[in-house]
Structure of T-protein:
Amino acid sequence: MSFRPETLSIIGLGAFGQLAARHLRPHLALTVCDPQVRANDLPQVDLAQAALADIVVLAVPLSRMAGVLRAIAPHLRPGAVVIDVASVKVAPARLMLDLLPPHVQVIASHPLFGPASAAEGLAGHRIAWCPLRGGAHRRIAAFLRAQGLEVIPTTPDQHDRDMAVVQGLTHLIARSLSRLGPLPQRMATRSFQKLAEAAAMVQDDSPELLTTILRDNPHAEGVRSRFLAEAAGIAAGV
Amino acid sequence: MSFRPETLSIIGLGAFGQLAARHLRPHLALTVCDPQVRANDLPQVDLAQAALADIVVLAVPLSRMAGVLRAIAPHLRPGAVVIDVASVKVAPARLMLDLLPPHVQVIASHPLFGPASAAEGLAGHRIAWCPLRGGAHRRIAAFLRAQGLEVIPTTPDQHDRDMAVVQGLTHLIARSLSRLGPLPQRMATRSFQKLAEAAAMVQDDSPELLTTILRDNPHAEGVRSRFLAEAAGIAAGV
């Protein structure tokens, strides 16, 4: 029995929800739901209505996810697909499996790009992909690949292990650099330019995202401690 | 009275000395001097002979600079130009002004590139430029600009302040990352890719260079301490 979605709702119109809306609206009948942000040219619905779509994309901060899941759970249709896009995966996966009824299909995902890095399109960007319940993930993954995305199957725990390094250290280093004040530009080497570019790419990320990456990833603290211990050891040894 | 150099010697054939030889040999009569490294196709001379050139480029580790300066000082001709290329500038500037006779012109420089970053040519690369004694620096800077380099006038102290951030932090971060083991690649974000590229660019630098950058720069320890304190504060605050 093939999954042929016609409607999709996006819950949460932060930076990523807006990016998703822009890319998905040519393909499906789209509704959006956000208590604060207005999308002038898309049908705005409440949570109960958003839950009626074939695919429900949760683009809310992790701190709001349990509340949203409880609100939509009674309204979701059998066979509907719920997909989250948070920057950690262990916690959202557990919440979705615990709080959504068994007749709902579940995918935990993490698009490894944002409005800044995908300004010139989706081609070549990646999305971490954790199918948790149901078979619709195959068809949706094929759709995402057709948009030029590289879909990377993984588990929530492996994702969080990798991201503790990838995002945890990038954000830690970027924030630390930005607190040093203006960086030297005239004298920059190529390698430092890359470092400064990496820092600039993440410095506009929201405080909620930073908290998710640095606190809500169960492996982040361990990786951070090892990195800082290595740096302190190098500093002490010279 | 115009400075028209015809001969140039390079003392020290490490990674940068070899790079300099490759780019300078079409322009001047070149000799090289190194106790270990052989340059098969360039005249190899001893320190006393190297000191007879119109321009003497010191491409030796900082730890060997005082010894080399004492060895060449009695042989340098009036009006000759001595240029160092070390990655810090306060210490070499002081050594050159203290140990070279007053009839010798002196420039402290720091090419902000190496064999890896200049693999495709010099165009667009930068060199920090501190004229310390004599007027020959103008003609030499004009020559370097004609090779496509951006010549950045600065003082030894300002250079070391900027480089404590630019090189000090890049190397500290790169070495710390490399000690964490293999980095995640499949899940890398664009910003993390830039961070990993920055680390890869400096990880083959010699231990002597690392020591110079992290220990011999008078501002390095202060910058490093501030960076690590900011990072520890962010880590503790999440």
In short: The radius of gyration of chain B is 19 Å.
